[in-house]
Structure formats: C-alpha cells, structure tokens
Amino acid sequence: MHDLIQEMGWQIACESFPNSRLWKLEDIRDSLKDKQKLEAIEAIVVSDKLYDIEEYEENVSFSADVFVGMKSLRLLDIIGRFTSSKPTFFPDDLRWLRWSHYPFPSLSTSQMNKLVGLEIVGGAIKQLWIGQKVMPNLKFLNLHNLDCITTFPDVSVAPSIGKLVLSSCKNLVEVHESLGSHKRIYRLIIKCCERLKHLPSKFKMESLKLLRLEKCSSLERFPDVSPCMAKLSFISLDSCSSIQVLPSTFGYLSSLVYLSLRRYTGDRMSDIPICKEEHGCEEESFVDQDDTKAFERQPKSISLHTLANLCSLRILNLSCRPMESEVLLKNLQAFSYLENLDLSGNNNLVELPASISQLSHLKRLFLNECHQLQVLHGIPPRMQELEANNCYSLKRIEDLLTEHDRWNHISFINCQKLLGDEDNEKYLDKILQQSFLKRCAVVDDPLTIVIPGNKIPCWFREQPGYLISLMMPPKHNNTQIIGIVVCSVFSGKWHGPPFGFDISVNLEKDGKSIIQKEEVDSCVINKNASDQNGNTWIGYRPCSSIRALQCQDWSGAALLISLHLDSGAKAARCAALLMYKEEEEDNQHISIKTCIGRPWVTRRKMEKRSTSLKRYMNRQK
C-alpha cells in the first residue's frame, strides 16, 4: 500500500513538473540525450524495489560525468553501479544524496557545499571523504551496512551535523576523536557495530539529547562525560556486554531521564514497551524474554554507584542484566524520582529489597522472566502497572489493593505457584472483584488483568467458546454506557506473540447489515498446550477508547466480540458485560450500576450472531 501511494505521488509530481522528477530508467536515458531536459532535472529517485539489482546494473552504468549538465539537481537517490566509475562531479545545488550499494571505495565531496543529507547504505566504500573539504550544511549522515569501513573519519569537516547514524558496520573499529567534541549533534546512534572498540576519550557534545550505543559487544569503555552535556536525556547501552563500569563523570548528566542497560542474547524479542515518549524520551525500549540458560551466561552485574546523582532519572531498564539483591539495596535510594523500573530476566533476584518502597514515584515495575523470584512485597503506593510474567518460582504476593488507589495493568502470566495458597488466592480474588473494576472505570482509563487459573468471576455470565454477542440497549440508554469489560480463559501455558480481541459492531439499517471490525486491545501472551492450568484475562475499555462505540444510535445493534491469540488459539470460555453509569438524586455523584451489563439477546440469537461474525471473518480472509 505504501509503495502504491509513493508511486502515485511520483506520478503526480512528474505530471505537474514534467522532466524535472525522474524515477524510471527509460525517462532518465531520454533526458540524457537532450541538453534542455538535462538542465531541468531536479530529482532522480530510483527505488531498489522497482528493479532487481543485477538486471538494473546491466541497463545503467552511465559515464562518470553524467551529472555535469544537471545544474538544477537537488535530490539524488540511486542504487548500485549507476555510473561506470566513481562520479567526477556532483551539482552545486545538490541537497540530498542517498546511494544504496555504493560500488566505489571512496566518495568525492568536493562540490557538496550545499548538501544537507548524506546516506550510504551498503556497498564497497572504504573512506567516506578524502582531505579536509568542509561540508558546512550537512545536517544528516547515515552510514548503514558498510562492511569495508574500519574507521569513522574526522567529523569536524561537517560542523552542522545534527543526526548521525552508524549501523551494522561490522568491521568498524574506531571513531575519530573529533566526534566527542562536536557542537551540533543532538542525536547519535551507533548500533550493531560488533567490532567497535574505541570511542572518543571524552564526550563534550553540548547539543546531544539522545545517545544509542546498542549491540556494540566489543566496546569496553564508555567515554568520560563533560558537565556541558546538560541536554542529554536518553541513553541506551543495550547489549554492550563488555561495558562493566560507567565513569564517575556520569553523574554530570543532570537531565538524564531514560537509561537502558539491557542485555539480551539471540534474536527473539517480545514487544513490551516500557517507554512511550514521556518526559522527553524519544524512543521505545522492549523487554527481552530469553531462556534461563541465556541469562545465566551473562556477567553478574554492572556497577551502579556512579548513578547516585542522577536525580532526573525517570526510566531505568536493567532487564537481562543479572545482579545481586544487595546491589539494588544499596542503590535504590538514589532513584527517588524513578517512574519506570525494569528488572526482567534477573535470575539472581529472589525477592525485592525493602528499599523499593522508597521509590515513592514509581508507577511501572517489570519483573518478567525472573525465574528465581519467590516473594513479591513492598510495592510502592503509586504503582499503576505491574508485570511479573513467567516468574515460575513466585509463591507469595501481597494485597495489591489495600494501599493502591489506581491500577491500569496487573499481570502474573504462568505464575502457577500462586495458586493453592489461601492468602494468595484471597488477594487474587480481590483483583477480580466487581468493586475493583468499578473503581477503575470511574476514571475512564483502560484496565488489563491477567492471573493464573481458569476461573471466570461469578458476576459475569460465562459461555463456552471464543465468540460473544451482546444486544445494545435502546437509544435513550446509550448515554449511560461508559465501557465494556471482557473476560476469557485460555488453557495451557502462554508465551510469545501478542493476544488480542476484536470488537465488531453489526448495524442493521434499511434492511442492510454493516459490520465494522476493530482490534482494541493487545497483551503479551500466547498458548503452549503443555500446561493445563491456564490463565484468566480481564480487560476493561472505556467507550472513549473504542472507535466502533462512538456511533450515536446503537438501537438494534449487536456487539460482536471475538477472543483469540495471534497464534490462532481461541478462548475456551469467555464473557462480556456493558458498563453503565448512574447519577444519584443530587447529581453530584456517579456510580456504576450493580447490574453492569447482561447479554441482551437469547442464546439462540447469540448463536445466530456468532455465525454471522464467523461468515464475515471468513470473507475478510
């Protein structure tokens, strides 16, 4: 779809500006024969998706001076051996150059005084630029998958660079010292450069806001930090497995909000976002859920004493970085303003240290895959999200509702040892109570609960299978509906890709049926039939977050719900209810009706609606 839209856009541009935007080889060849057309060219874009690279190179290989007559050329996006040898000339007005599979060992930049963006993706280049020719306007530099580059050159020749990306340059060993004192770079990304050993000795990058050093496994030392780096708010050192100590000058980063020191092995990743552009954080980080043996191969810990002065830190990701409880115990007080903490994949963690209760601002705690975790207590009172999935040894939890006013997400997937203990089951039952759901519904926020077991609360009217049909009430009651709550039981052990449910609204008007399908929720779970205990999932979504329920006239409409895993597995049992509000006589209080939603259709009608939904979904396939 994206390619089609792009092609349509280029077609419109070519019709509006004939001979100035070229994206087909036959048009390029035609323009090269006519000097007047040559001077009119402003953009050449040859997509690598339109041509097979070998077939493409057989039909090009223009002369090295092919660009000499293109005085108006501003955008050049080409692939492979577009010229028979290294170009001898680039137009003075060239603003953006992107060359995929660049076939020559060096690049001539002597005429690129106005160049703003430079991207070299793949190819044989060994030296980015030769000599000290200044590129005063270059603001974006992206080098990707360049296996022949071993050193990154003096970046002072491009003083205006704002964003610099070096990725998958597997033989890159060192970066020039000038990078560490660049004044304009605000976004620096160096990732998947597995042989990189040497960075500048010191970072004095006063404009830097985001730094990502990821999967640079040979890098042993993080540079010293200058006090001038007051703007740096995001650092990711994910899978930089050789860095064991952060410099003492790390404490100068007074604006640091997000710090990720996550480790992982292998390529399997599960998407559990812990950061979504809050507090100036510009990236998403994901929790890796690898097996126990992979975690045990990692070094024991990383020194955290240098983080003690980072009062601005809000998000700390230490997932898959095993550490002893004593390390946390000594350092947690340094993170008093922390809001997100990820300790997933820590196989040395048996229980949370008592000092975690000092994190009075903590809202989100992730403990997934902590296979030795046995006791969970001391949860701070402002917590809103708690995940302890696949903590197979977890056998004791505390009452999560007594001192906590607000929850959006509680998840104990596959924590089967919590069952059978009287106190644990009492606490889990409180989470499933109707009164807890009412309390969360009042604030108009979503709520997701996943706990071990196969019990649907008695205040639902459960039914077998994965399809639910609810008849919407008469129009005069529509304004009283505030949301929908869905419950399902999946047998077996869940692990892997996301789980979701679909809401489809069947509106019958003028004898016609219109079905609108909409996916409204996702949660990280999957099914593996080796375990028989199962898990229970409950999700509440306010009407304000469900596009299909924005219709003003619901009279006679059927609300059709399908509960399934992305793997194809379907719920063994399920239930759904409509949530209502009720104004008290003094109009000052709002509460939820005790009879929150019931199926408005008979069993026979429900089966008929389910059949209709099945047919619709089959047509969609």
Entry summary:
With 621 residues, this protein is an alpha/beta fold.
Structural overview:
There is one protein chain. The protein is α/β, with parallel strands linked by helices and 621 residues long. Among the domains are: 257-431, Alpha-Beta Horseshoe (Leucine-rich repeat, LRR (right-handed beta-alpha superhelix)), CATH 3.80.10; 454-620, no CATH class. It is 14% helix and 25% strand. The chain has nine helices and 32 strands. It has a 22-stranded mixed sheet that branches. The chain has a four-stranded antiparallel sheet with strand order 25-30-27-28, covered by helices on one side. It is globular.
Overall morphology: globular
CATH top level label of the domain at 257-431: Alpha Beta
Q: Give the helix proportion (percent range).
A: 10-25%
Calculate the terminal CA-CA distance, rounded to whole Å.
Answer: 17 Å
- Any idea of the CATH topology of the domain at 257-431? Leucine-rich repeat, LRR (right-handed beta-alpha superhelix)
Characterize the biggest β-sheet. Answer: 22 strands, mixed
Computed CA radius of gyration, to the nearest angstrom: 29 Å
Q: What oligomeric arrangement do these chains adopt?
A: single chain
Secondary-structure class: alpha/beta
**Proper CATH architecture of the domain at 257-431:** Alpha-Beta Horseshoe
- Ranges where pLDDT stays below 50 over 5 or more residues in a row are 265-301, 524-531, 584-607
In DSSP terms (H or I, runs of 4 or more residues), the helix count works out at 9
- What's the total count of β strands? 32
| Average of the residue pLDDT scores | 76
Beta-strand percent range: 15-25%
